[in-house]
Design goal:
The protein is an all-alpha fold. The protein has three helices and no strands. The longest helix is centred in the middle third of the chain and has 28 residues. The chain is flat.
Length: about 110
């Protein structure tokens, strides 16, 4: 992809702002809003688009949150040192869906 992001993200931000502004205005018009409400709806949508581009830039620089925690140890032993990854797995019992808060499946009374 484009590697020199000194101009990429500002251009994407401006494009997202303009596009989402008009999307908000058109959506407000279709909803039958007044003139001031159209402006507010357009600006609100434009800000949402710009925040989306800012989030893309942040993820591009820092990586996803799941990637950041991928190198962390699975659990910490009582002494404060990381335990081996499989140390606690043998003693754990598997959880069934009912113990995790899931509901039983709904079946018809007639057994269809």
């Amino acid at each position: 992809m484009y590697t020199h992001d000194n101009t990429l993200y500002p251009m994407l931000g401006v494009g997202a702002f303009v596009t989402m502004f008009w999307v908000g205005v058109v959506a407000g018009y279709e909803l039958g809003l007044s003139c001031a409400s159209l402006l507010i709806m357009g600006l609100l949508s434009a800000c949402i688009g710009t925040v989306g581009v800012c989030e893309l830039q942040r993820r591009d620089r820092q990586g996803m949150a799941s990637e950041a925690g991928a190198g962390m140890p699975e659990r910490i032993a009582p002494g404060g040192s990381p335990a081996s990854p499989g140390a606690g797995r043998a003693s754990r019992r598997p959880l069934d869906p009912l113990s995790m808060g899931a509901r039983r499946p709904v079946t018809p009374a007639g057994g269809i």
